[in-house]
From TrEMBL:
Stated name of the protein: Uncharacterized protein
């Protein structure tokens, strides 16, 4: 018979923090003394420690050494298999267990969900109800995190009420709030919050974040103010949620107050709060404050750097964003797919071809070439640069093509005049890809417009709602109207325009004025008047009217229009082009004097001479 002091001694040892080598040494002594074989507690304790600090082989050997296995032994063994991703063996162990408790069921349900088998997890949950084991609050919190729809969540909620666990647990209540907020049913989440017997900071945070994400920014701020009147102090997540709400309504004044509160509370150095502050200032059109926050904090963190890069690119400060990116790389901060996506999306606007290629090489080097978000940004970048062949190569190499990928390549080909390829990709999407959406139809209609494929474009347009379930929007109507205008069918285009919800838009006005404005004075005046209302500072309607009046000798009208432009300080926008060659060079319209201008115009004269010699100019 084993003496009690020895058991107490080894039990005390195993309850201390041990290294793996120390654990193996103690375990070997227990085996030598046959204590693991005869005492389930000591065996389970060794098994649990191996599961946390050892290898899976050590854990399996420790499990086999326990002669009298109880339910705790089986639960630990199954948890180890789940942690190592072997859900198939874990399910076999679950089925072979002599008895199961609620921990066993919770482990296999969460294991299935963690491995991406949500449907299997729900199946096990349904089977649990017929097994005689009552689900715990933890069970419901697991299941609520992956329900298929809000209706399914409501069914689980009803089942919880019948079992008497709906509002008795803070964890369960918080899970219900999260579930309802995820699907946009914030009123239901608020009802759960009010009915909870006890709440905590997480409850408040979930509710505030839910109001914010669902578009009720003012309500989120109101709940935050109420929270501050209670005994619950806001944490970093609370502050970040409220800052997000302020950025959503572009309330810079309130946002600054929250930033001051975060500084006073000591949360401003938290990367989540700092990131939210940078985003808030950026979306409130105060990018200088975003830069100030970033510089003063000097917090080189992946989340903060991503926010700064995103904010700079959204304000067309791409070169500054690239500097932050380079500095972050020097600080050994590994870029994420979000970082690369931001840079790639803006690369077409400011990076020369060589550096765009280098950025693509970095994507490959970091192993993000098959990431859908990064690949889509690569397609977008190459398309905007006119390199549709490179965009197609990236698209073809993608393992999983989502709808964003298809939309990017279809729009890319359409904008670059590759109309047949764009339509062909659309037809391929209908056969092998996901169902098209509004953006897809915009892309294929633009392709038909640019390629003058009138019959095909009209066919897509008139069948898009019945065939693909996409209701025509003003964007689609604009594309069809442009198609008809380019084909000379102005009357048909005008009929189409009358069906637009917001009436004729600025783009169509400019298109009509450029095609028909000078010839038909009544139409010119009518469309120009509409464009003036839509874009008061645009010079286009006035310039077209001036030209139309000049052609008809109506000099008083010409003078009146020019005086109107002068009084309103409306000037013709000077067109420009730019090129990056060892720096950015901008060439304005009718500009003769600029850096290197003499050489440019000398080369241009030589080119014109060659063109004349070849007989291309008569």
């Amino acid at each position: 018979m084993v003496c009690s002091p020895r058991l107490t001694f080894f039990s005390t040892l195993l309850n201390h923090r041990l290294s793996l080598n120390s654990l193996k040494l103690i375990h070997s002594q227990l085996i030598k003394l046959s204590l693991c074989n005869t005492n389930s507690y000591l065996g389970n304790r060794c098994l649990d420690l191996y599961s946390k600090f050892g290898t899976i082989k050590d854990t399996l050997l420790a499990f086999d050494d326990i002669h009298h296995k109880n339910i705790f032994s089986w639960n630990i063994y199954m948890r180890v298999l789940i942690d190592f991703g072997d859900i198939k063996t874990a399910r076999q162990v679950f089925d072979e267990m002599p008895e199961r408790d609620v921990v066993s069921w919770n482990s296999i349900i969460s294991g299935y969900y963690a491995c991406g088998f949500g449907q299997h997890a729900l199946g096990v949950f349904a089977k649990m109800h017929t097994s005689g084991v009552t689900p715990s609050g933890h069970t419901y919190s697991i299941v609520l995190s992956f329900v298929r729809s809000v209706c399914h969540g409501m069914e689980i909620h009803g089942n919880m009420i019948t079992k008497g666990v709906a509002f008795a647990s803070v964890i369960v209540g918080n899970s219900l709030i999260d579930m309802y907020c995820k699907y946009g049913f914030v009123d239901y989440a608020f009802g759960v919050f009010l009915d909870m017997e006890e709440v905590d900071v997480i409850s408040w945070n979930s509710l505030i974040a839910g109001w914010s994400k669902s578009g009720h920014k003012e309500m989120a701020f109101k709940q935050f103010c109420i929270m501050r009147t209670t005994n619950y102090l806001p944490d970093a997540f609370t502050i970040s949620s409220v800052l997000t709400a302020c950025s959503g309504v572009q309330d810079l004044s309130q946002g600054k107050q929250i930033v001051c509160l975060s500084i006073k509370s000591g949360f401003f150095s938290n990367s989540i709060v700092a990131s939210a502050a940078i985003n808030m200032f950026s979306k409130c059109e105060s990018i200088k404050d975003s830069v100030t926050v970033f510089n003063e904090l000097d917090l080189w963190d992946s989340v903060v750097c991503n926010s700064m890069i995103s904010s700079l690119t959204s304000h067309q400060l791409e070169e500054n964003a690239m500097r932050v990116f380079v500095l972050s790389m020097k600080k050994d901060i590994k870029p994420t797919e979000f970082t690369l996506s931001c840079l790639l999306s803006s690369a077409s606007r400011f990076l020369p071809a060589v550096q765009r290629t280098e950025l693509h090489c970095l994507v490959v080097k970091l192993g993000f070439e098959y990431d859908p978000v990064v690949s889509n940004s690569l397609i977008d970048m190459y398309s905007k640069c006119g390199l549709t062949d490179a965009a197609k190569i990236v698209f073809d190499q993608m393992g999983i093509k989502d709808l964003v990928s298809w939309n990017s390549i279809i729009l890319g080909f359409a904008y670059n005049g590759k109309t047949d390829e764009s339509v062909q990709l659309f037809e391929e999407l209908l056969k092998n890809g996901p169902a098209p959406d509004e953006v897809t139809m915009t892309g294929v209609l633009l392709a038909c417009t640019h390629g003058r494929l009138i019959d095909k474009g009209l066919s897509y347009f008139y069948t898009m709602e019945d065939k693909y379930g996409v209701k025509p929007t003003d964007t689609h109507l604009t594309a069809i109207a442009e198609m008809m205008i380019n084909a000379g069918e102005l009357n048909e285009a005008m009929k189409m325009i009358t069906t637009m919800g917001n009436g004729i838009n600025g783009y169509i006005c400019k298109l009509i004025l450029s095609c028909y404005g000078i010839g038909d004075l009544e139409l010119t005046e009518r469309v120009a008047e509409r464009l003036v209302k839509l874009e008061p500072m645009s010079s286009i309607p006035y310039m077209v009217l001036v030209k139309a009046y000049e052609m008809r000798g109506r000099w008083e009208s010409v003078a009146r229009v020019k005086k109107f432009m002068k009084d309103r300080n409306i000037r013709k926008v000077v067109g420009c082009s730019w090129i990056v060659v060892d720096g950015l060079f901008v060439f304005k319209e009718n500009e003769v004097v600029h850096h290197g201008g003499e050489d440019v115009y000398s080369a241009l004269r030589l080119l014109m001479q060659d063109i004349e010699d070849e007989g291309y100019i008569y």
